[in-house]
Amino acid sequence: PHHRHQSSLEGIVYLSSEAPLEPGQRNQARRKFYDIISYFEATEPRSDEFSGHYNRPLLVRLTYEYSRSEKSQDIFLRAFFQSVALPIDGEDDVDLDDTELEAALVRFAEHLFDNFFLPRKI
Q: Which domain of life is it from (predicted)?
């Protein structure tokens, strides 16, 4: 039998006990998140419905955007930045040509896909 997956990241990544992001920190994290996602969305090969591939940056972006509350979005941002090994705050420029960043983004998207969007086998 298949069971539905948990619909939030709270129980999977143990970040829910952290304080919410401050408004300035949240805005900075969102900007950095969208810079990263936009770059990789633009470079992602176009997928079609028959190829079996999916657009990983798009999956990550839409999962963030459809998070229901600001708290859920904060948890998602913390999980994302932890996964790609970047600080959530700070003005440092992100090296978007870094192959490690791209690989980490792919792993994060695959984690979302495998653990939240596919039926779970028991």
A: Eukaryota
- Report the C-alpha gap between 25 and 99 in whole angstroms: 26
DSSP alpha helices (H): ranges in the chain? 23-43, 56-65, 70-83, 99-112
- For residue 120, give the DSSP letter: E
pTM for the whole structure: 0.78
The phi, psi pair for 103, rounded to 5°, reads -65, -40
- What are the pLDDT digits (tens) for 4-31? 444 444 444 444 567 889 999 999 999 9
Q: Which residues pair with 121 in a beta bridge?
A: 2
The rounded distance, in Å, linking the Cα atoms of 119 and 110 is 14
Alpha carbon of residue 67 to chain centroid: 11
- The pLDDT tens digits of the residues spanning 98-110 come to 999 999 999 999 9
| Sequence spans of domains, the chain | 2-121
